[in-house]
Amino acid sequence: MALKITQVRGTAGTKQKHKDSLRTLGLKRRHQTVVRPDTPDVRGLIQAVRHMVEVEETAGE
C-alpha cells in the first residue's frame, strides 16, 4: 500500500515545523504530488500538515 500526497496550500505564513514536514515528504510547491509508502513515520508527517495536503491510498509502491 502506498499514499499519494498532493500539496494543496502554499507555505507562506506557516510555521517552520510545517515547512520542514512538507520538505521531508518531498513536497516543494503547490499542486506537486508524490507517492510514499504507508508507514507510521509518513502518517505522522501527514498528520502534522493535514490542512495543507490531500492524501489518497493507492496500490503498490
TrEMBL record:
Molecular function GO terms recorded: structural constituent of ribosome
Pfam annotation, one family: Ribosomal_L30
Keyword field: Ribonucleoprotein, Ribosomal protein
Chain positions covered by the region annotation Disordered: 1-22
InterPro entries: Ribo_uL30_ferredoxin-like_sf (IPR036919), Ribosomal_uL30_bac-type (IPR005996), Ribosomal_uL30_CS (IPR018038), Ribosomal_uL30_ferredoxin-like (IPR016082)
Database matches in PROSITE patterns: RIBOSOMAL_L30
GO cellular component assignments: cytosolic large ribosomal subunit
Coiled-coil ranges per UniProt: none
Residue ranges of domain Large ribosomal subunit protein uL30-like ferredoxin-like fold in the record: 3-53
SUPFAM superfamilies: Ribosomal protein L30p/L7e
GO BP: translation
Assigned protein family: Belongs to the universal ribosomal protein uL30 family.
Quaternary context: Part of the 50S ribosomal subunit.
Protein name per its UniProtKB record: Large ribosomal subunit protein uL30
Protein's organism: Corynebacterium sphenisci DSM 44792
